[in-house]
Amino acid sequence: MYQCFDIEVSDHIAHLQFKRPEKLNSMNKAFWTEFPQALHSIDQSAEARVLVISSTGKHFCAGMDLQVFQSPDPKMFGGEQGRRGEYVRRLVLQLQECFNTLENIRIPVLSAVQGGCIGGAVDLVCATDSRYCTKDAFFTVKETALGMTADLGTLQRLPALMPPGLARELAFTARKFKADEAFNAGFVNQVFDNTDQMLEAVMGIAKQIAAHSPLAVAGTKHMINYARDHSVADSLQYMATWQSGMFHANDLMLSMAAQAQKQAGEFEPLHPVQAPFEK
């Protein structure tokens, strides 16, 4: 049981849904512990082949909960300067890792956004593989307006998801980036009239992903992420090495047979992740 969200796994699709609409699904202190734990649990079990992240209420997520700012850790603002700096750096890296996990788990992650997606929530959706939203959705890099620099991934990922000049404008101005503009910039894949329509469509996309070989999908995600951060030449070399170890005829033959029979393939799941030498 989680305080900040519910999780359901069905037909190889994991659905993580924020459940604090009365607090605008803001990220309280519990979120930063629960969210990475949930992601690792989903990845480790290997039952799910795709993850959908959605929300409840009027807004997707208002970012960091005000409670976190109102009762800050005293080690962040007091004490000897060198030790304070080391502590803050380590804290930011730990928070960054919460969203890095979205990229590092083996399955694709789809985010479905309604209403406001603000501050830390933009950091989150930037780390997902694909984004979808309702026509009333908007995105805001709020940190600039609060007198701080966004530090959990937006500034690093957003320029790769839309024209860099637009990403800079959004970060400098902290203005609302609405659904139609997000779609035209390529930040979101599709815009829907309402939340129900969006979830139905996104679950349909997740179902298509889950029907494929989990090994093929995991390899595809890993290679796309690698290519983003490396040269074409390096990425092609790595791709060749990956195929030499990961490509096997079993899933290929199962896929071809399933397509010929016009039915879903029955693929072996990936092995669960476990501690070294654990039986």
UniProtKB/TrEMBL annotation:
Transmembrane segment boundaries: none
Pfam families named in the record: ECH_1 (PF00378)
Keyword Ligase part of the UniProt annotation: no
MF-aspect GO terms: isomerase activity
GO biological process: fatty acid beta-oxidation
Keywords: Fatty acid metabolism, Isomerase, Lipid metabolism
Biochemical pathway: Lipid metabolism; fatty acid beta-oxidation
Family as reported in the entry's similarity comment: Belongs to the enoyl-CoA hydratase/isomerase family.
Stated name of the protein: Crotonase/enoyl-CoA hydratase family protein
Lineage of producing organism: Bacteria, Pseudomonadati, Pseudomonadota, Gammaproteobacteria, Thiotrichales
